[in-house]
């Protein structure tokens, strides 16, 4: 098919063509970046914590005197373990999706020259790893002799476990077993590798959501008030309800922080509530843009069909088939949409660079541009199909008699 008639028609309707091209460009730019943001948010919600979330809950107490921490721990643990359905209860400093009380920067040499990144240090009493359901993939779990008083923040020296992700970051291509990690004057020696243990806070470094260390510790003034409870998955909600009620009797000298005292599944839901809400908003924006764009294409194509009835009739009279007329409008639409996509790609990357500069969002991957372009091309063909079929169905005699 010759393109000259198409170009001539578009030049004759420059304003309408320009408006629909700009509409498509805006839809392309917004949709590409929105899809990228949706994928990033969805990926965040799929975080693998490495623990048995369905069986776990946590209690967080505050307001107690540090000097009575050992007595508080003893009373609370005894009471929690007596609750029907509880299979284990331990003292821990934090859990995933909770408060990040052990976030520190580590180095890999005593002179603190080799940076190891920002990690979360989990402190747990004997049995905590088993309670959490942590899987060890290299080395071994702490022995009873590895559990030492926590000191001011961490044990002064400790044999620890690191996640595989953290180990690969600190010592790429090497076994971490026997390696040392330094936090000021604290020395950690690696004895094992955990498959996963997600950090409690939101990561500061992309890919750092699994940079964790588990240090065995004994309860004391700096390791008190936060407890992890294990029960059967179907019992954990009822067990946590009973545990929250029991705290008033077990620890009248402490305050239960209720928004941090919940099942791990509830904490996960709370952590990612904003992400899921944003996904819903972005999906709504995409659907609205596509709908408006489709209506714009249908309206423009219908207008042009009505204005070109005589032209269509003449073409039919001199031998053009219905398929020729249909293909004419499809090719015309493809050309218009392609112009919009070309402008939209420029706008999409301009918006992506702005987001990257001011909000540390990764640059838009090219496959989202391909996805946006393919969607708009398909949408354009579907939207123009109705008006094009109506144009192809106009009898030559009726068309040539039209005013």
Could you walk me through the main structural features you see in this protein, from its secondary elements to its overall organization?
Keywords: Cell membrane, Membrane, Transmembrane, Transmembrane helix. GO terms for molecular function: transmembrane transporter activity. This protein is an alpha+beta fold and 403 residues long. It folds into two domains: 170 residues, no CATH class; 219 residues, no CATH class. Strand 8 and strand 9 form a beta hairpin. Strands 3, 4, 5, 6, 7, 8, 9 and 10 form an eight-stranded mixed beta sheet that branches. Strands 1, 2, 11, 12 and 13 form a five-stranded antiparallel beta sheet that branches.
What topology emerges from the helices and strands here?
Layout: H1 4-12, H2 14-45, E1 56-62, H3 69-81, E2 86-91, E3 103-107, E4 115-124, H4 128-132, E5 136-139, E6 148-149, E7 157-163, H5 164-170, E8 180-183, E9 186-194, E10 212-218, E11 226-231, H6 236-250, E12 255-256, E13 262-263, H7 264-271, H8 273-307, H9 309-317, H10 322-359, H11 366-392, H12 396-401
Parallel strand pairs: 4-10, 6-10, 7-9
Antiparallel strand pairs: 1-11, 1-12, 1-13, 2-11, 3-4, 5-9, 7-10, 8-9
Helix pairs in contact: 2-8, 2-10, 2-11, 3-6, 8-11, 10-11
């Amino acid at each position: 098919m010759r393109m000259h008639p198409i170009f001539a028609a578009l030049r004759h309707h420059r304003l309408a063509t320009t408006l629909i091209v700009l509409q498509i460009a805006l839809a392309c730019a917004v949709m590409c970046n929105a899809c990228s943001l949706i994928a990033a948010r969805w990926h965040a919600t799929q975080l693998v914590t490495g623990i048995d979330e369905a069986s776990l809950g946590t209690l967080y107490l505050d307001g107690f005197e540090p000097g009575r921490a050992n007595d508080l721990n003893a009373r609370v643990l005894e009471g929690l373990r007596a609750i029907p359905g509880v299979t284990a209860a331990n003292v821990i400093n934090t859990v995933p999706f909770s408060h990040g009380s052990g976030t520190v920067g580590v180095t890999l040499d005593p002179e603190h020259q080799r940076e190891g990144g920002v990690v979360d240090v989990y402190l747990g009493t004997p049995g905590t790893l088993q309670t959490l359901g942590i899987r060890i993939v290299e080395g071994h779990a702490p022995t009873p002799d590895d559990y030492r008083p926590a000191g001011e923040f961490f044990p002064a020296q400790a044999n620890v476990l690191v996640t595989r992700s953290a180990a690969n970051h600190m010592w790429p291509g090497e076994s971490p077993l026997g390696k040392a990690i330094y936090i000021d004057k604290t020395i950690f020696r690696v004895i094992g590798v955990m498959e996963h243990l997600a950090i409690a806070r939101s990561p500061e470094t992309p890919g750092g959501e699994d940079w964790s260390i588990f240090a065995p510790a004994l309860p004391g003034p700096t390791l008190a008030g936060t407890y992890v409870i294990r029960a059967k998955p179907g019992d954990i909600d009822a067990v946590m309800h009973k545990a929250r009620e029991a705290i008033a009797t077990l620890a009248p000298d402490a305050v239960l922080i209720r928004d941090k005292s919940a099942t791990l599944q509830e904490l996960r839901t709370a952590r990612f509530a904003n992400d899921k809400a944003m996904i819903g908003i972005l999906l709504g924006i995409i659907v609205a843009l596509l709908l408006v764009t489709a209506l714009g294409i249908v309206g423009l194509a219908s207008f042009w069909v009505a204005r070109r009835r005589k032209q269509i009739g003449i073409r039919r009279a001199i031998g053009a088939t219905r398929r020729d007329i249909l293909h004419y409008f499809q090719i015309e639409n493809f050309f218009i949409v392609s112009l919009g996509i070309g402008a939209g790609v420029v706008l999409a990357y301009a918006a992506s660079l702005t987001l990257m500069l001011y909000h540390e969002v990764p640059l838009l991957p090219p496959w989202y541009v391909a996805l946006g372009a393919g969607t708009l091309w398909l949408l354009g063909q579907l939207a123009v199909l109705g008006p094009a079929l109506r144009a192809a169905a106009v009898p030559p005699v009726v068309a040539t008699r039209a005013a």
